[in-house]
Amino acid sequence: MNKLRHASLAGAAITVMMLTAACGGGGSSAKDDYGKAPAGSSSKIGEGYGAGGYGSGNSSNTQAKNAPAKEMTVREAPGIGSVVADSAGMTLYRFDKDTAKPPASMCDGDCAKAWPPVPAGDATASSGIGAALGEVERADGTKQLTLAGWPVYRYAKDTAPGDTKGQGVGGTWSAFAPDGKKAAGGKQEEKEGEKEAEKQGEKQGEKQGGKQGEKPAAAGVFVADNAALGKILVDGQGRTLYRFNKDSAWPMKFACTGTCLDTWKPAKPVEKSAVRGVPEKLISTVTRPDGTEQLAVDCWPVYWFTGDKKPGDTAGQGKQGLWFAVNDQGKKVTSAPAA
């Protein structure tokens, strides 16, 4: 009798483990490959990072590539126009796969060898640069300089002041213009990229049950510091992510349906390589009753609120006593942090 009871308990435990692994333990089965090709993996070097050629490899060169920008100036680059350079005249670049609102870098590992991040310290802008300076914390904890919110890089193949070999590499890298946008030589590439993104948005919208032409939110999950709530999760557009008390993570249940979805929009799934500041194991994808996919945090479906009008807004917090922001540990935020 005891043996039979033990066997039943063991079987139940295995079942629970399997079901847990399908959600909070590493993502739903539909998205198991999200974590297999992070942004810095060597398999993507030829897809926009610049294949090979990380510089001479000597220590002085490496130090120069990772030196502070100091006083940044505007220089004229043949065929490109006005570009931003560091105090040594080396061209500074931005990466399309990064985000500016909120600032986040998607260039790690081998990517960061080809495109060394510029440290945040000891940087000033000359009068010709109209974009604001800032900083962003990278995955390794270091602080990187930002211009108009965009993380700033050098290119390892630029070996002399004025070089712009990184312009247009992979269709994702561009020199900075003084206003923080892509330098003029990349306008055509930018337009083509926007057209391609729009096409992809239409396809993705159709796949996920959206209207044709509907553009999905910028991909990513990030941590934002909120003065009232502490560290909360936001999407790639800086919109606060919320969970609904009437939903359920175990067993999975979606209570926000019908007219509820006019106000609370299901957050789109993201690749785990686009997750910053929250344990990747907490990020998964769940399938709604209508067959569309939704981002989940710690197995809870998450939404953004149409009443939040700008990045950082938290107007949805505590709505009806049922809607709550999510913190960097995947838990709902019900009170302000201790002073």
Overview of the molecule:
The protein is α+β, with helices and mostly antiparallel strands and 339 residues long. The chain has two domains: 1-36 and 217-339, no CATH class; 42-182, no CATH class. Helices cover 17% and strands 23% of the residues. The protein has five helices and 21 strands. The protein has helices spanning 2-21, 59-65, 109-114, 187-207, 260-263; strands at 70-77, 81-85, 93-95, 99-100, 103-104, 123-125, 133-137, 143-147, 150-151, 173-175, 221-226, 230-235, 242-244, 248-249, 252-253, 264-266, 283-287, 293-297, 300-301, 303-305, 323-325. Strand 7 and strand 8 (143-147) form a beta hairpin. The longest helix has 21 residues, at 187-207. The chain is elongated, with a radius of gyration of 23 Å.
